[in-house]
Every structure is written in structure tokens, then in C-alpha cells.
Amino acid sequence: MTARTARTAREIARETITREILDAARARLATDGPGGLSLRAVARDVGMVSSAVYRYVASRDALLTALLVECYDELGAAVEAAVAAQDDTDHAARWLAACRAARTWCVTHPGEFALLYGTPVPGYAAPQDTIEPAVRVVLALASVAAEAGGEVPPGPTDVTALVADAGRYLVERGGDEPAPELVARTLMAWSGIFGTISFELFGHLTNAVADHADWFDAVATRLGADAGVRPA
């Protein structure tokens, strides 16, 4: 029993220190940006010598990966919760709630947004285990669009081959075989939503639109309509 208690105490201590390191790293994202993230600076922030940090985080790249997974999951969970809180039959409300939740999380976490959707960190390549957390938002949008079942007219070009991998990905996760045009419109909406958020956070909409939140709602609503999600 004593050995079990001692091991559990070590586990708790490790989790606590790892959490402090991640929190300090996230604070550094806001001040230094993802490209400037330094294990030495993070160690200083948590009161450790830099060599001690490597007991909890193997490298700067491992720290970036842990931050990516955590932040993508936070963002995805916020969007999924916003969708779940709406009436299942009100697809337009669910779509707008998802988009608003994404914007709210990003605007309140600008440092983390820069890591997820900003300039890639030189020398760092995100590993495979970041993909599932990264696509939670687009999967939520795709689910709402599929359930809405609105008419999506053919586009000016055939996108079937272009979005085949995305369509297979949706099927592998339990969805029905989606129409290629719907997949394309959802992907366009995904990039348009986060592009609009990016423009807001990096100041590109200053003096261009009267109200950032209202402009975002207008963009999200039009992108939803383009994907067949329209008010009843």
C-alpha cells in the first residue's frame, strides 16, 4: 500500500508540474509568439533550471505538439458544446453557434490562435497525432451541414477528385457518403470562418467593417447558406 501511495504521489506531482509548464508555455505564446517559444524561458517562468524541464517535456517540438493537441481539443470541445446546446432541428442556429464559439475561443486566446492558424513555426512539423484534434471543428460543421440537408447547387467546376480524401475521412468517422459539392462547401466555410477570425485578430479588418462581431455573423451565415444550412 505504501509503494502504491508513493507512486501515486509522484504521478500527481508530475501532472502538476507538467500542467505548470503547459500554462507557462501558453502564456509565452501570447508574448513571444509560437516561433519564439523557448524551453529556457518557460523553465524560468516556472522556477526551474532549463535542464529539469526535460524530465517533463522531451524537447521544444514535444512542447509545441502538446500545446497543439490541448488547444485544438479545447477549441473543438467549445464548438461541439455550442452545437449541442441548440435545438437539434434548428440547423441554422447550430451552425451559427458553432461559428460563434470558434470565434469566441480564438479571440480570447490570441496566442494559441497564432499557434493553431498563424505562421508555421520554422523547423517544426506537426506529427500525425495532432490531426484528430485539429479537425474537430470542421467535423462539427460538416455534421450540421449534412443534417441540414439543404440544397447545394453544382459549382462552376467539378471538385469530386479534389475532396475525395476529405469525403472518405468523414465516412471513416461514421458519416454517410457525402456529396462532393457539400464537402467542398464545408471546407470553404471552414477556411472562410478562420480566415475572417485571422483578419480580425491581425488587424486587417480595421476601418473596413463597422463591427467585427456582426461582420463575422454575416460571413458565417452566408457561408452556412452556401453549404445548404439556411434558416427554416
Task: Characterise this structure.
- This protein has 232 residues and is mainly α.
- The protein is built from eleven helices and no strands.
- It has helices spanning 2-32, 39-45, 50-53, 60-84, 91-108, 110-117, 131-134, 136-148, 164-172, 180-201, 212-226.
- The longest helix is centred in the N-terminal third of the chain and has 31 residues, at 2-32.
- The chain is elongated.
- The termini are far apart.
- The mean pLDDT is 93.
Overall 3D geometry?
elongated
- The secondary-structure class comes to mainly alpha
Task: Count all strands and give the number.
Answer: 0
- Mean pLDDT, all residues: 93
Cα gyration radius (Å)? 21 Å
Q: Which blocks of ≥5 consecutive residues have pLDDT under 50? A: none
Strand percentage lies at under 5%
Largest sheet: none
Helix share, percent: 55-70%
In terms of quaternary structure, the protein is single chain
Write down the secondary-structure element order.
HHHHHHHHHHH
The N- to C-terminal Cα distance equals: 62 Å
Number of helices: 11
Question: Briefly, what is this?
Answer:
The protein is an all-alpha fold and 232 residues long. It is built from eleven helices and no strands.
